Amino acid sequence: MMKKSIRVFATLISTILLCSSANGAALFGIFEKKKYSPLIMFKVPKGTIKDCDEMEKIVKSVEKELNVKVERLDILRDRFARNLYEKIDEVEFKGKVPLLYHRESLQSIYGLDTKERVRAWAKGRWLPSKMSGIDGKGSGSDQFLPDEQEEEGELFMEEDLSELQQLGRERMMERLDNQEE
């Protein structure tokens, strides 16, 4: 009687293994090979950092909208994830979490950002660098360069302009000066 029940159990398990996937290797997704995704999110456990929890919600909604998969790596629990995070962060030295990284376009988003920027990142589009203004929203509207740096930037720009472009720039500056007076 015992041998019969073991045989039935073994048959049942082998049937489940063979029917659970096309190649018979997966048992309810446990042994299933991970599919490649160019999108990575470096995060910390839920409840640790508020920005990380908010970004998780944004990423989930973008995943549903675009039907993409973002691979999540926990840098506090996984040593491999931490090492990979440090290698990616070597370029910009920001050290912020969450970090969204696109392996193919090499685009990254540090910290909390807007849904529109995350959507563009997930599509692999080019993300312009954002200046973090005083308001912290990345508008850059309240942040000005000191006069010395502004003049250096203007001199640098003038070197790259053709004669016609320099003439146009000079006339534009004259018009602006006349408007201020």
- How many strand segments? 4
Q: pLDDT below 50 for ≥5 consecutive residues: which ranges?
A: 132-150
The overall pLDDT average reads 76
Number of discrete helical segments: 6
Radius of gyration over all CA atoms, rounded: 27 Å
Q: For the report, how would you describe the main beta sheet?
A: 4 strands, mixed
Percent of residues in beta strands? 5-15%
Question: Key features?
Answer:
about 180 residues; four-stranded mixed beta sheet; 4 strands; 6 helices; alpha+beta; elongated
Report on this model:
This protein has a 4-stranded mixed beta sheet with strand order 2-1-3-4, sandwiched between helices. Helix content is 48%, strand content 9%. The protein contains 6 helices and 4 strands. About 10% of the residues have low confidence. It is of the alpha+beta class. The chain starts with a helix and ends with a helix.
